[in-house]
Design brief:
Helices cover 76% and strands 0% of the residues.
Length: 103
């Protein structure tokens, strides 16, 4: 069963715009973080699909995706630690309630 390349790019575009909408519209920091992850996953889909259809004998798209996944994991760990620290101090994780971060 062959799925056309346009279907993958439509899925990737939908994920990207859902992530951007969630980043702009949400107030909760965890929801904003999940929206950023959706945007990164859309980029991963683009890497893998472009690699599969343009250069199927090479694995550059897969390797780029692994790097993006590793960077996303590090970014998520740092962001969750910041969110936990903000919650301990403010007892709230809404983005609008945070004016500045102090050490």
């Amino acid at each position: 069963m062959n799925i056309p390349v346009e279907s993958y790019f439509i899925l990737s575009t939908l994920l990207f715009f859902i992530g951007v909408y969630g980043f702009v519209a949400r107030k909760n920091l965890i929801s904003i973080l999940m929206s950023v992850e959706l945007v990164l996953n859309a980029a991963n889909i683009n890497f893998v699909v472009a690699n599969r259809f343009l250069f199927p004998e090479y694995l550059e798209g897969h390797i780029y995706s692994l790097f993006v996944i590793a960077i996303a994991a590090a970014e998520t760990a740092v962001a969750i630690s910041i969110i936990i620290n903000v919650y301990r101090q403010k007892k709230n994780i809404d983005a609008k309630s945070i004016n500045e971060l102090k050490y």
